[in-house]
């Protein structure tokens, strides 16, 4: 573990986990991450940033492109944040880095969030953008879906919804610590509660309640772990051995393999949840490079 990650773990445990005890204050959480994002530097000069306004006539939410000069492939990215916070600005550095490492154009989607917009709003927005890319002539074999935490779950939900609707599927999926089970039944929710530097276990069921009703906690489009994964494209999953959502990745990988999905699983020690989105960390840059290599490999066909 790098010195930067050691410090990041201390800061997260003090400022995120400790401050996160008690009921979730949605407005406070949003303001806090947005203020942090305001300090981020702009994308590097070799990555073009292009905002895309919402298009209600087409059912499209706002989004933005982060693209290298001559992209060879497309990444459709869904940000994390428990379905209720974070957004385009918080994940812009990650998407810019992924664009460079994968020699790609990355479309980051500003899907509707809870509690104002409950399930299945986010899935509808994800699928609408996939349909739009296809309508624009984007070749599905040149696309990878990607996302972190809730966004990783949303990427999987979009795959399941696309399969159910008979739409073409992309070449692959890239998932960072995906939240695949909104019923929060994984054993590491309990066994890793103390070592996780970001989350208190009781916060995740509360966040899930903002997005879904109790009846939909195991709906595959909300909790893809409970879906039929047969026929889904190749995946790369990354998760930390010290996060309470580890079981969500372990069970997803096991089920995917049982159902014939080719999947690579990278587990890291002593790193925080969704560390690849923390581009100031050497480990994040290393794994974003690996992510770019995966994106390039699966889209070469």
TrEMBL record:
This is Alpha/beta hydrolase. Keywords: Hydrolase. One of its GO terms (molecular function) is hydrolase activity. PROSITE patterns: LIPASE_GDXG_SER. PANTHER family: AB HYDROLASE SUPERFAMILY PROTEIN C4A8.06C (PTHR48081), ALPHA_BETA HYDROLASE FOLD-3 DOMAIN-CONTAINING PROTEIN-RELATED (PTHR48081:SF8). The active site is at 149. Residues 75-275 form the Alpha/beta hydrolase fold-3 domain. Belongs to the 'GDXG' lipolytic enzyme family. It comes from the Bacteria. InterPro entries: AB_hydrolase_3, AB_hydrolase_fold, GDXG_lipolytic_enzyme, Lipase_GDXG_put_SER_AS.
């Amino acid at each position: 573990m790098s010195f930067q990650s050691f410090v990041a773990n201390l800061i997260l445990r003090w400022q995120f986990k400790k401050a996160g005890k008690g009921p979730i204050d949605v407005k406070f959480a949003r303001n806090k991450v947005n203020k942090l994002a305001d300090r981020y530097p702009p994308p590097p000069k070799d990555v073009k940033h292009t905002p895309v306004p919402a298009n209600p006539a087409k059912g499209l939410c706002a989004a933005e492109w982060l693209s290298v000069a001559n992209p060879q492939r497309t990444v459709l990215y869904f940000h994390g944040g428990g379905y209720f916070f974070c957004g385009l600005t918080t994940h812009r550095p990650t998407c810019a880095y992924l664009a460079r490492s994968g020699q790609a154009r990355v479309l980051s989607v500003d899907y509707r969030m809870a509690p104002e917009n409950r399930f299945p709003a986010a899935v509808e927005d994800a699928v609408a953008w996939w349909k739009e890319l296809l309508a624009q002539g984007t070749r599905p074999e040149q696309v990878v879906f990607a996302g972190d935490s809730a966004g990783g779950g949303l990427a999987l939900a979009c795959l399941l919804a696309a399969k159910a609707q008979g739409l073409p599927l992309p070449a692959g999926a890239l998932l960072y610590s995906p939240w695949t089970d909104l019923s929060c039944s994984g054993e590491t929710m309990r066994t890793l509660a103390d070592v996780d530097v970001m989350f208190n276990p009781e916060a995740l069921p509360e966040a899930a309640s903002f997005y879904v009703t109790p009846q939909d906690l195991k709906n595959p489009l909300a909790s893809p772990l409970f879906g039929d994964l047969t026929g889904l494209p190749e995946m790369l999953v990354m998760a930390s051995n010290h996060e309470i959502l580890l079981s969500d990745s372990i069970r997803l990988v096991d089920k995917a393999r049982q159902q014939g999905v080719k999947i690579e699983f990278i587990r890291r020690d002593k790193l925080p949840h969704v560390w690849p989105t923390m581009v100031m960390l050497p480990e994040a840059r290393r794994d974003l490079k690996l992510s770019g290599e995966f994106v390039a490999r699966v889209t070469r066909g």
